[in-house]
Amino acid sequence: MHGLGNDFVVIDARAGGAPVTPALARALGDRNRGVGFDQLAVVRAGEGVAAEVDFWNADGSLADACGNATRCVARLLMDETGARAIDLRTGRGVLRAEEAGGGLVRVNMGPPELDWRQVPLAREMDLDPLPIEGSPGAAGMGNPHCVFVVEDVGLVDVAATGRAIEEHPLFPERTNVEFVQVIDRETIRMRVWERGGMVTLACGSGACASVVVTARRGLTGRKVTVRLDGGDLGIDWREDGVWMTGPTARVFEGHLSPDFLGAIA
């Protein structure tokens, strides 16, 4: 599946089966020898919710949050059950997802994490600006984000700068890195380097964090269209959390071959 080109492998593990391991996540994430993905979403049975979802990065590390993958999983389960709203339990907590009409799905990603311990950062400091060249701001959305406001995102070497900032010592768990150009108070342009080592076409939690940073700086309102390389997301920072609205697409379904699984160390 994908949301604005932010692509995912979704494993339905609600019936049980062998657990996903870091080695399996890395093998699946290999775009030449596996399937390839920006994130892997593993859907498990859960009590009191439609499902529980685990998120894996392509390098085999776990993530607590992935906004676009959450919307994709919500679309699958709402289509399966006919429900117009469901709850999903993630590392971020229980997230509410809703049918938004016109093929769109919205999800409440929860309130932003605006304490240095929550992001997390390596030591106590204000989140905005950080003591990093370019004066970025930080925000947590269940995963860490470092947001640079720039004059023109087209002039930024996203891969080189993002790779360097991801490993910055201020971020003990590494960080996603966003580069934001403010178009007007209701519109921003964003490009992203995702933690785990890649430039992606879209990042839902990154879009949420970018609006939180620009709104706190007074550069935008709290309801903003975020223009990503893969398309537009609607972000609405409400009292109950940061809501994200956008499309999803199902590309194919299949089964992993015994040969593929047997070759994984």
Characterization of the model:
With 265 residues, the chain is an alpha+beta fold. The chain folds into 2 domains: 2-108 and 248-262, Diaminopimelate Epimerase, Chain A, domain 1 (Roll); 137-239, Roll (Diaminopimelate Epimerase, Chain A, domain 1), CATH 3.10.310.10. Helix content is 19%, strand content 36%. The protein is built from 5 helices and 16 strands. It has helices spanning 22-29, 67-81, 158-166, 204-216, 258-262, and strands at 2-3, 6-12, 39-44, 51-57, 62-63, 85-90, 93-101, 104-108, 137-140, 144-149, 176-184, 187-194, 198-200, 223-228, 231-238, 241-247. It has a 16-stranded mixed sheet that branches. 44% of the residues are buried.
Output the CATH class name of the largest domain.
Alpha Beta
Number of strand segments? 16
CATH topology of the largest domain: Diaminopimelate Epimerase, Chain A, domain 1
Look at the helices and sheets and give the structural class. alpha+beta
